[in-house]
Amino acid sequence: MKIGIVCYPTFGGSGVVATELGKALAAKGHQVHFITYGRPVRLGDFSENLHYHEVAVSDYPLFDYQPYELVLSSKLVDVAKHEKLDLLHVHYAIPHASAAYMAREILRSQGIYIPYITTLHGTDITLLGKDPSFEPVITFAINQSDAVTAVSESLKSDTHKYFHINKDIQVIPNFICLDEYKNEHPEQKKLYAPYGEKVLMHVSNFRKVKRVEDVLRVFNKIRKVIPSKLVLVGDGPERNNIEKLCRELDTCGDIKSLGKIADPERVLPHADLFLLTSETESFGLAALEAMAAGVPVISTDSGGIPEVNTHGFSGYLSPVGDVDDMAKNAISILKDEKTLSTFKANALVQAEKFSISKILPLYERLYNEALKSVSK
Hints:
Layout: E1 2-6, H1 13-27, E2 31-36, E3 50-54, H2 68-82, E4 87-91, H3 93-109, E5 116-120, H4 123-126, H5 135-144, E6 147-150, H6 153-162, E7 169-171, E8 198-204, H7 212-223, E9 228-234, H8 239-249, E10 255-259, E11 273-276, H9 285-292, E12 297-300, E13 315-318, H10 323-334, H11 337-352, H12 356-375
Parallel strand pairs: 1-2, 1-4, 2-3, 4-5, 5-6, 6-7, 8-9, 8-11, 9-10, 11-12, 12-13
Helix pairs in contact: 2-3, 3-5, 7-8, 7-10, 9-11
């Protein structure tokens, strides 16, 4: 198949999943064309089956805001025609699904029919979906899709809650490439914990919804019982508040900030425990990435996280904001090596349920179904 993938090329979960999906499809022999405004950060080296088409928006003085959606639609038409694409797979509803709809209709007027599949990832529904100014467009673009997927049952439920959707939504969870998370350099852990302390880790975009301040509060309680260090991976608008809090708690000396990292699989295997304190997550890809590295997860119980992190097996779930419970659960895992080893092994078993080898065929089957519906 020749597949066009539209995504945000950034560090966010939707872009990461879309990029890894494209790479896996290319490895199986499909021709994959990424169509976006920047080269996806997780794309890595190109292969003969991977292609990138930049969506460049000219800065005309006439426009106060660049018309990205229109330019994207035109680019989709151009790539679909000249690369003879079979279908489009757009990740994130706005503006990708609406741009795909416009491109599909332009192509249809020229006697070309190319289906588009929309994958919903989270904030396109749970954040934008609550904004009435976006609702009509999102509803229309989803309902006009040839197929719709969501990354969790929780997100599927939220989509039906916020929108009047008459399309079937198929849940296809996020996935992981397990081979990329092997710890080949265990000695590097000493860079974070030179005296054998336990290493706690958090990875996010540091937005308010991630509640990174709770990470620091949980860590502060843990380190009073068990010698430990905290490694923060990422950056974002809450960075200043985090730095202020670590000074108030006097924990800055035990915290190492690594900033944004394109390949977190390099550092995750060095952690003993992963902290995910989000107010809500439609899936919790960061938790899955941690478990793929054999790292148990202490998380909140909101959104789709319970579909990823199994309480008492791969880690523990706590109510949002309950830092006392999260700290208690973390200490119960870290209290002795036998318990920690059991949870680490369980985390890897849990991650294997979301292996790319199990999820990729679900997308391929969906593509084939979409193409069959076109040929009827």
